[in-house]
Structure formats: structure tokens, C-alpha cells
Design goal:
By secondary structure, the chain is an alpha/beta fold. It has twelve helices and twelve strands. About 35% of the residues are buried.
Length: about 300
């Protein structure tokens, strides 16, 4: 009987010991998870995201993430087609919100999307998904916001401060050379029409008008500043051309307009005051694109 009682005590001690170790193990697991994630305040409320994401799918804002050396495993087709990002995107899969199976196969731990992206609920079941509304933030604030999401706010903020300083200095030098009243228009050639842009439609417009403080022609200001872009025909091309023209030129398109008298007789063309940029490289406003275009503008205006 005594031996049976001792055996019972031993079993009870073992059970209590086992129960006592279960709770700390659970607490340890929770603590470990908390140390690996944080709550990002998105447009739609807090989202738990990894502090050091290892497999990012960027359905939008890919260039912003690339500028912060994000570990991207999936990218949208438009970013993938941009010549500026070819080297960084080598081996990265092209994905879309319509191909959920492909996204699942890539096993992401973070998905960056747009508020208009389809299947957001399903994407959020695959991995932490954060959506941004295009145009809600200005181009520099957007970079800082991506920095917050990737836990690289310091790097993003430092780049913004440096860029603003460099662009402002370039703007001062350019105005000194061309005059405070000189105008600059950003024009892009289409298949049968032209586009002129306001101050927030990529193609370097943010640099020229916001960061550098250069002037746009009055007609451009009237028709494109608020709308962002205005479409017009070849015949009225001179009316939208400033003292200087930044020509967004698609090397894969028909650029025969440059052989017409309408184009050749524009004062900016006759005075050799046209700066060409590659349309395919100029449709974003991320740090990689901005630094690339800033260099072109410095060379084009200042001859550096």
C-alpha cells in the first residue's frame, strides 16, 4: 500500500511538472513572434508585418521597395519592363493579383498592393498585405511610408533629405543660368497625339517643378497642373512648348514628328534647348528614377 502511495505521488509530480512547463513554452513562442513582427499603421488600420521581410511581393510600389533593397520575389509587369530595374529584378517572378496560385507558390511574408488591387482579402490570407492609394501621399512621403513598412524609415528619411538638398541646389544653379522667368514644359509623344504634364505625373515633373522650383508655361499651368496631364494634337505643339522642353521620348514608338516643320520651328528646338528622357525609364517617382533623372537634368541644363 505504501509503495502504491509513493508511485501515485511520483505520477502527480510528473503531471504537475509537465503542466508547469507548458505555459512558459507558449509565452516564449508568443514573445518570439512579437520580436519578429510589428504593427504597421496602414490606411485601413494596423497590420501585423514582419520586421525583416524575406519574401516580398510588390504588386505596386515595387521601385520604392527596390530603392530600400527589399528582398523582392514577385513584381508587377510594368516595373519588370522598366529598363532601370532590370539588374535588381534578375530572377524575380512577374505576378499579378489574378494569379493567386503563383503568389502562393512564391510563399511571401509581405505583399504590397494598391487600394484598387483585386482579391485583397484573399491576398491577406496568403501573407500580411498592405495597400496604398495612388496619389494619396506625395512622392517623397510615399517613399518614407514604404520605409516604415519595411522597417527602414531611417534610410528612407535620410534619402529624402539628401535628395531635396541636391535637387534644390541644382534648381538654384539652373535658374541662375537660364533666368528666373524661363519656362520648362514636359511633353511626351504618343502614337497620334502628345501629352503635357503638371507637377506630379512622373517624367521628372516632381523634380523640375516641385524640388527645383522651375516655371511651367501659363497654358500648361492652366490645362495640366490640376489634371496632371493634358492631351493635344501636333498642330498646337508650339503652344505648349516652354523656353526649354523636356521631351519624354519612347524609343519604341514612331518619332517621325521630329522631322516635321511644326517641331523644328519651335523656339526651344531651334535654340537647342530640348532635353530628352526615355519614357520607358521615366514613369515612376521613386528614388532610383529620381536620381537617374536628376543627373540627366543637371547635364542637360548645366552641361555637367
Amino acid at each position: 500500500m505504501k509503495n502504491l502511495y509513493i508511485a501515485f505521488l511520483l505520477v502527480a509530480v510528473l503531471i504537475l511538472g509537465a503542466c508547469g512547463t507548458e505555459k512558459p513554452a507558449a509565452e516564449s513562442s508568443t514573445a518570439q513572434k512579437d520580436s519578429e513582427t510589428f504593427l504597421y499603421e496602414s490606411e485601413n488600420g494596423p497590420v501585423e508585418v514582419p520586421k525583416d521581410p524575406q519574401r516580398v511581393i510588390a504588386l505596386t510600389n515595387g521601385p520604392n521597395a527596390l530603392a530600400l533593397d527589399a528582398n523582392i520575389v514577385g513584381i508587377d509587369e510594368w516595373t519588370n519592363a522598366n529598363p532601370l530595374f532590370q539588374e535588381q529584378l534578375e530572377g524575380v517572378e512577374v505576378v499579378s493579383e489574378d494569379n493567386l496560385e503563383k503568389i502562393i507558390e512564391l510563399d511571401p511574408d509581405l505583399i504590397i498592393a494598391g487600394s484598387q488591387t483585386k482579391n485583397l482579402d484573399k491576398l491577406n490570407e496568403i501573407a500580411s498585405t498592405v495597400a496604398f492609394t495612388w496619389g494619396k501621399l506625395d512622392y517623397l512621403s510615399q517613399q518614407v511610408e514604404i520605409g516604415k513598412l519595411l522597417n527602414k524609415e531611417t534610410e528612407a528619411t535620410e534619402w529624402v533629405a539628401d535628395f531635396k538638398e541636391r535637387a534644390a541646389a541644382a534648381g538654384d544653379a539652373i535658374r541662375t543660368k537660364i533666368g528666373d522667368d524661363a519656362t520648362v514644359s514636359v511633353i511626351e509623344s504618343g502614337n497620334k497625339e502628345f501629352y503635357v504634364f503638371g507637377d506630379n505625373y512622373a517624367r521628372g515633373t516632381e523634380i523640375l517643378y516641385q524640388a527645383m522650383g522651375l516655371n511651367m508655361p501659363e497654358k500648361v499651368k492652366e490645362l495640366a497642373l490640376k489634371a496632371g496631364v493634358y492631351t493635344f494634337s501636333t498642330e498646337v505643339l508650339p503652344e505648349f512648348s516652354g523656353d526649354y522642353v523636356v521631351l519624354s521620348k519612347n524609343p519604341e514608338a514612331d518619332n517621325s514628328f521630329m522631322e516635321t516643320d511644326v517641331w523644328k520651328n519651335i523656339p526651344a528646338v531651334k535654340n537647342d534647348q530640348v532635353i530628352e528622357i526615355n519614357t520607358l525609364e521615366s514613369t515612376y517617382s521613386d528614388p532610383i528614377t529620381l536620381d537617374h533623372l536628376l543627373k540627366i537634368f543637371e547635364e542637360g541644363f548645366l552641361g555637367k
